Amino acid sequence: MNSIHDMGGMHGFGPVVAEANEPPFHTTWEGRVMAMQRALGFIGLWTIDMSRASQEALPPLSYLSAAYYERWFLGLEHRVLAHGLVGADEIEAGRALRPGVKVKRTLSPAEVDRVMRRGEYTRPPAAPAQFKPGDRVHTRNLNPVTHTRLPRYARGKTGTVEAVRGCHVFPDTVAIGAGEQPQWLYTVVFTGRELWGEDSDPAIKISIEAFEPYLVPA
Amino acid sequence: MSEDNRHPHDHAHGSELSEMQLRVRALETILTEKGYVDPAALDRIVEAFETRIGPRIGARIVAKAWADAAFKQRLLADASEAANSLGFASRVGSHLIAVENTERVHNMVVCTLCSCYPWEVLGLPPVWYKSAPYRSRVVIDPKSVLAEFGVKLPPGREVRVWDSTAETRFLVVPMQPAGTDGWSEERLAALVTRDSMIGTGLATVAAEAAP
Question: Which terminus of chain B has a lower count of CB atoms within 10 Å, N or C?
Fold first, then answer.
């Protein structure tokens, strides 16, 4: 989806401002939002790509004006409503009005370590990898209205496959409920001039992690 | 500060502050009453990020790579295997990739589409990493971003930016500061800052004295 989250190469956002000795959370509620995100994710009703898609679907002005964990909160609220875990009347009331629906599992304190490790996204491949390191590839000019991990700045560009990263869950299909449809994943590197034109610094290179359906032989 | 950097609900605006606090508390109450979350589990997740999972993990990995050439080879070949072999509480799964800074190339990591970050080894990302200025600029003009972090590279040094657009996660192995050969891993680890493992900083001997 071509929305505001896809920011690579935009101008006008100003300097990068770093905060000295920044704490993990600036307020208590930020930590609760992050923890709820993980605990609800453990239930298994949605995947990380569906979470990302919920945030990307926020109106651009909301996306930009919300603080980071506020954006997470809005996405979380959207998902618990969309999956029927919570009713809009309960959000309005600020308390439960009915018992919960039955879910496959919930996160107990003893199992917290299970959400403190990264999920596994590699899957057995259905076919051999089409590309190998050194191959020249062209990124397709894809503009789906749904979730994709091919950033706008790297569409319709020519680059070089640098590494094959295994066969991974495909975000574009899993985010819309169309299944994992595992795809080969590659690190594809581009010159600054390929992405940004002849005035670009000749000493910069940029890589993306590109799923095979994003690529065609160059 | 930019739009994305600011925390409008975190500072002196009392009504806004209480609004987000109240909304989050209400959602937690509803989810708890309906049996979907256990507040004690939430406490433990927050506590892990506040006390155990942070950039000192990454610093120990980098320091070991500097001190032990065989470990460095393992790390660059398969960072997940090498990092997991050190037995940290937070395991990295199989998707960690270590990229080494050299005399030829300086690496920087970003997620232009959201905020993907190797939290298992660096903790939660700082606000600037998740901000619109960093995400928008580092892929088109990385050297101006480096300049804002006070990093000036030698002329001719290539800058390589890794956009984390999938579940692979990148850890920069900064160059070991000159004159530190033979130092203990513990002493070396004190030179490795979080920013040096994202690529917006360098490991320096001066870092040892910094807080």
Answer: C
Query: What tokens appear for A45 in the block?
Result: 């009703």
- A100 pLDDT tier (thresholds 50, 70, 90): very high
Query: For residue A157, what pLDDT band results from cuts at 50, 70 and 90?
Result: very high
Helices A28-43 and B14-33 sit at what angle, rounded to 10 degrees?
30
Residue A8: list chain B partners with CB under 8 A. Answer: 110, 112-113, 135-136, 139-140, 163
Fold of A136-217: SH3 type barrels. (2.30.30)
From B18, B94, B114, B144, active-site residue: B114
The pLDDT assigned to B171 comes to: 98
- Is the dihedral angle over the CA atoms A5, A6, A12, A13 positive or is it negative? positive
Does the beta-carbon distance from A109 to B139 stay under 8 Å? no
Residues spanned by CATH 2.30.30.50 within chain A? 136-217
Indicate the DSSP class of residue B125.
P
Q: Where in chain A is the domain with CATH 1.10.472.20?
A: 28-115
| Identity of the amino acid at B7 | H
Q: Is there a contact between B136 and A43 if contact means CB atoms under 8 Å apart?
A: no
Q: What is the pLDDT of residue B12?
A: 46
CATH architecture of A28-115: Orthogonal Bundle (1.10)
Residues lower than pLDDT 50 in chain B: 1-13, 211
Whole-structure pTM value = 0.93
CA distance B64 to B114: 31
Picking from A4, A29, A104 by the largest number of B CB atoms within 10 A of its own CB, the best residue to mutate is: A29
Catalytic-residue membership of B2: no
- Strands B169-173, A158-168: pairing kind: unpaired
A205 reaches B (C-beta below 8 A): yes
Instruction: Identify the structural domains of chain B with CATH numbers, from first to last.
Output: 14-51 (no CATH), 55-208 (3.90.330.10)
Looking at residue B18, its pLDDT comes to: 77
Q: Is A49 helix (H, G, I), strand (E, B) or coil?
A: helix
Q: What is the pLDDT of residue A113?
A: 86
